[in-house]
Amino acid sequence: MPRKFDAGYYVSEGFHSIFTHGFMSFAAVCMIVACLLIMGSFSLLAVNLDHMLGDLESENEFLAYIDETYTEEEARSLQSEIEAVPNVSQAIFVTREEALTDFKEGRDSNPLLDSLDPEVLRDRFRIHVDDIEQLGQTVEAVEQVKGVANTSVALEIAQGFVLVRNIATGVALVLIGILVVVSLFIIANTIKLATFYRREEIAIMKMCGATNAFVQWPFVVEGLLLGLTGALVAFFVQWGIYQMVAQFIVKGNGLSLVTMISYPGMAKIILPVFCGTGALIGVGGSLLAIRKFLQV
Amino acid sequence: MIRLIDVYKEYDNGTKALKGVNMRIDDGEFVFLVGPSGSGKSTVIKLITGEIGATQGRLMVNGYNLNNIAPRQIPYMRRTLGIIFQDFRLIEKKTVYENLSFAMRAIGASPREVRRRIPYVLQLVGLEQKADRYPGQLSGGEQQRVAIARALVNNPSMIIADEPTGNLDPQRSLEIMMLLERINELGTTVLVVTHEKALVNRFTKRVVAIENGRIISDETGGYYNAEKI
Fold first, then answer.
1. How far is A218 from chain B (nearest CA, A)?
2. Given an 8 Å threshold on Cβ–Cβ distance, is B107 in contact with A210?
3. Is the pTM value of this prediction over 0.95?
4. Which domain does A226 fall in, by range?
């Protein structure tokens, strides 16, 4: 009695076919590795850029000056009210004296500065925000707090960060999208070559009464195995490249302005994404390639 | 059993390959389908195997009505047929045994069934000693025997041989034809498409002659009258 789904046969034929058509399999794996590496490199670049911009964003702050008629205690008491404003992550109180010390720091000694009275300055809050894109609204909301006399914000710089990040993410997404399509096309053609090489086998199977599903399954298994193999190879090669680049950047980055996320820290995301993409490209490519040869 | 009733076939390029063919082949028969090149023989085979559809007319093959057969039913119809080609169409990278097991596994036979059936079929075609050879290590006649074994291995009710001796010398051709005759005696219907007059006339079988897409003679115990065709 013929069996409907012979998984053991499909897997063994898929495996067997990989080794029987060794060169084509090697070419397909190389293609998948190359595509995943290009996609992976762009993605990692985007992620790191986002991370660095995130760091810079978190350092971005604005100042809220408190009305000079408020005593220091009254000014301090505004902290909870300011921190309650949506999007404010932290508000650090700075006294007039501290502000003056900060002001004098890094400046040459000057009799005019030395004689400066802290009373000419105001108590203030250094305010950090969660989302820099909403900085404008947050500043407006803080200005509404009673006792806040004025604010000082470099809105253009903040908007610059947002713009750079959005462009980097957009470019990376577009490139990844294009590369996925190109990869699928390349893999489909690679597997189509392998399928073309085996068109006689397929024709014989069909003439013997094999169903389309029976003919397709070994190719699907083969594509899946090639995709997963390519994904694993790409994962480790990507790791090596990433470490090399990271070391290079650390060496040439004495001031530690650029920080990179560690690869092992991202591995639990990268590995499934690579495996999923590899499997998708392998299986998708197989199905695209074999379609034509089933019409016997 | 095969029935073609008033079958017409016109290809997309306008070629009228069949013009009202009527033919009936009953179970257990041995039939030669003869005719010159371009007469429509191959079109008849392609229609019977479901590779193409008829433009007009009715077709029945082993209980399947090919006029309204669902595409997913075609593989099951093909399992009732064993097809032999002029160029053998063996897989060079597989041994004789593997070529046969490949055909059996293609229709979902279990490894146990494969192990049980192949030695019997190889013995039937006289190749039991050559199971481990590759096609390239066999003579043309032996390769065609492997192709016959492959056609038989799934126990079809009908064998269709399309110019099975086209690539063989007269002695090997005779041997192949005698093997097909023996298979027929064991109960399998055999349809042989050929244009080899001498070979056909050595056997006293039913001969259906086709020319210009029409059946021009159908004689049981007949012979291939090339002049008539």
1. 11
2. yes
3. no
4. 7-56+160-294
